[in-house]
Amino acid sequence: MNIVQHSTARRVRAALVTTAIAGASVAGLLGTGAAQASTAGHRVAGIVVIDSCTGVSGKITYSPGLRKTKVKAEHAVLSGTTSGCTDATQGPMSGTGTFTAVLSGKASLAAENFKGTFTINWPVSSGFNPSTGTLSVTDSNGMENVSGTVTGGADTGTVLAMQYVITGDKGSGTKKHPVTAQAFVNSQSLTLSRNEG
Fold this sequence. Notes:
This protein is of the alpha+beta class. The chain has one helix spanning 3-42; strands spanning 47-66, 72-87, 91-92, 97-107, 112-121, 131-140, 143-153, 159-170, 179-195. It has 2 domains: 1-43; 47-195. The relative contact order is 0.17.
């Protein structure tokens, strides 16, 4: 090999090495971008359910009692049993818990508008402290909509939501026989959610 051929071969090898290094750098950058995109793709965003219970059923007591159409000031206590509870991190919770609410507002059998406080006692298997907070209950075409905020205990800062329907009345809704208690069952899971951005 003469000097010219040797010099040319060296330049070709140098160019190949430079190209290989540049290619690896570009691949590395692309790989990093892909990894970041992949990580971003797994990032949780929006409303996320933290804890939920698929079943809630029980009874509501009213004082002095609901009339068919006459709206009056009422005091109500809702007490229910929860089942099918799940935590987003720990998974299913075995056993049952309780959901109670102390309410007041103006109501009749045809329309309700309550506000009050609630306590969720999670199944013992969860190890969670009770969740406490404030809520409102409004009636819409026979569907009771529950919404609220957890202000203490487990899941503080989350938003509560649930819907339930009435399955039975104690009383007829007249002046002489007002409805003093109702049985209910949820039609939408009880959920505690958080906005993850």
